[in-house]
Amino acid sequence: MAESKEPTSQPITLLLVGKTGNGKSSTANTIVEAGTLENSSAPFAVAHSFNSATTTMEWKECELDGRRVKVINTPDLASPPLTNDGKIRSPTTSEASKGGKSSSKKPNRPTLTKNKWVESETQRWIKEAKGKPTAVLLVIRCDMRYTAEEYAIFRQLKEELGGNMEDNLVVVFTMGDFLYRDGVDLSKELETVCDELKEVLREAKERYVVFNNKSPDPEDKKTQVKKLLQVVSEIATAEKAENR
Ligand SMILES: Nc1nc2c(ncn2[C@@H]2O[C@H](COP(=O)(O)OP(=O)(O)OP(=O)(O)O)[C@@H](O)[C@H]2O)c(=O)[nH]1
Ligand SMILES: [Mg+2]
């Protein structure tokens, strides 16, 4: 029988998390642009200034290799969106629209404490991922030192998303262009990194991929996404075997 190209009903859900400016939105765009977008919405906004481009969760669905993939892009939990007088804006309570995001610029929305914002934001991620995403993609730059601040963001994510987030964790190292430019062998480089990053990689069971979101070659980008999906498929297969 011919292999069906119809996407299966349960989408692969990818939740992108990490520090502001690490390249979450750019990586999300590389992923959805490698596939067929279900609607012709604009790409995820990428930061070009000191300010975070992503202030609230947003998502898009695409089809990749015959599979439905839902890409959930998130803001940095350490950088909540602020009003002009420095208070934290609350995310909208309505559902994020398909391929869109909540209208975080609505005037007169109540302000929140930091903890309340984190709680309300992460609950929306979990709801959108229908509980557990197929993979949590922790986005880290590979051209900069990994800091204690960034490790604290990781610990906080673990706390908010639940103790077994690491089961589905994949590290995405962005700025891969710098590695190629400088001829760096990342696997060797990772032997010399700080204990905190080693710990993150250990928790991710050494699952990592490298992304160059600035690659001018669409085929190169598709290859990067393919490698990521391979790693994600292995997680899904292992999980199925465990639940059998
Ligand atoms: N050279 C290079 N630049 C990248 C790469 N990925 C992202 N960038 C740049 O890094 C900056 C931040 O990227 P974003 O994708 O907006 O980062 P983010 O994590 O979504 O940031 P927030 O929305 O603030 O949380 C932008 O200027 C991107 O163009 C990459 O692989 N290589
Ligand atoms: Mg972003």
TrEMBL record:
<dbReference type="InterPro" id="IPR045058">
    <property type="entry name" value="GIMA/IAN/Toc"/>
</dbReference>
<feature type="domain" description="AIG1-type G">
    <location>
        <begin position="9"/>
        <end position="244"/>
    </location>
</feature>
<keyword id="KW-0342">GTP-binding</keyword>
<comment type="similarity">
    <text>Belongs to the TRAFAC class TrmE-Era-EngA-EngB-Septin-like GTPase superfamily. AIG1/Toc34/Toc159-like paraseptin GTPase family. IAN subfamily.</text>
</comment>
<feature type="region of interest" description="Disordered">
    <location>
        <begin position="73"/>
        <end position="117"/>
    </location>
</feature>
<dbReference type="Pfam" id="PF04548">
    <property type="entry name" value="AIG1"/>
</dbReference>
<dbReference type="GO" id="GO:0005525">
    <property type="term" value="F:GTP binding"/>
</dbReference>
<dbReference type="InterPro" id="IPR006703">
    <property type="entry name" value="G_AIG1"/>
</dbReference>
<keyword id="KW-0175">Coiled coil</keyword>
<keyword id="KW-0547">Nucleotide-binding</keyword>
<dbReference type="InterPro" id="IPR027417">
    <property type="entry name" value="P-loop_NTPase"/>
</dbReference>
<protein>
    <recommendedName>
        <fullName>AIG1-type G domain-containing protein</fullName>
    </recommendedName>
</protein>
<feature type="coiled-coil region">
    <location>
        <begin position="187"/>
        <end position="214"/>
    </location>
</feature>
